[in-house]
Amino acid sequence: MVRDLGVCETCGEFEGSCECGRGEIIIDGWRREKVSKFLSGLLRHFGYKFGIDIDDNGWADLDKIERIVSKKFGVGTDAIRLIVKFDRKERFEIKNSKIRAKYGHSIDVNVNWSENGKIPDKLYHGTHPKNVRSILKDGLKPIRRKEVHLSSTIEDAIEVGKRYAKNPAILEVDTKSLAKDGFEIRKKGKVYTTDFVPPKFIKLNNLNKKFINSTFDFWN
């Protein structure tokens, strides 16, 4: 369940409810989810359909975004800023009077953004089971996005994979060997990205082998 977002003079900005119980809800959970998905699409894929100019680094004017969101969902800049602050996937970034998606673009932008930090030795990718055969043969490619997206946990990969299948297949990527082979891996919020993962660095997670075998006769 997506939680409400609000502001309290005593507790400050909060998610769910404030400690004193006197806070004001700025955007409810239902509307928050709708706006978050719309912002993702607007800043990553189809801003041009709404007359939004997105520059080479992915930035758009927050005022213009606010006008569109306000007309469509009835919320303003305060709600957008709270959505960005409390977004668990860390998809967005606001700087001065600009806003952008940190990753996931299909439009031609160069976000050129990554966080410092140790890259885990293994990362995961959730996908539809019917894609497993071709991925293990040809590797992980960006397809409709600019980069390949990887998750730090199996649970996160399952959540992503459920966009494509009720029982997604989870692929395990040997990122330690991938990096040693010269591939750059970038941390962007909770997501890790790279340009391509060759098949030799990918294997099917053990949790999925029985399912893939029984459904697609994959191992024969």
What would you say this structure looks like, in words?
It is a single chain. The chain is an alpha+beta fold. It has 2 domains: 5-101, RNA 2'-phosphotransferase, Tpt1/KptA family, N-terminal domain (Arc Repressor Mutant, subunit A); 122-216, ADP-ribosylation fold (Alpha-Beta Barrel), CATH 3.20.170.30. 33% of the residues lie in helices and 22% in strands. The chain contains 7 helices and 12 strands. The chain has helices spanning 29-46, 62-73, 77-86, 132-138, 154-161, 175-180, 206-216, and strands spanning 5-8, 12-15, 24-27, 60-61, 92-95, 98-101, 122-127, 148-151, 169-174, 186-188, 191-194, 202-204. β10 and β11 form a beta hairpin. It is globular and about 55 Å long. It starts with a strand and ends with a helix. Residues 213-220 have low confidence and may be disordered.
Structural key phrases:
disordered C terminus, 12 strands, Arc Repressor Mutant, subunit A, alpha+beta, three-stranded antiparallel beta sheet, ADP-ribosylation fold, 220 residues, 7 helices
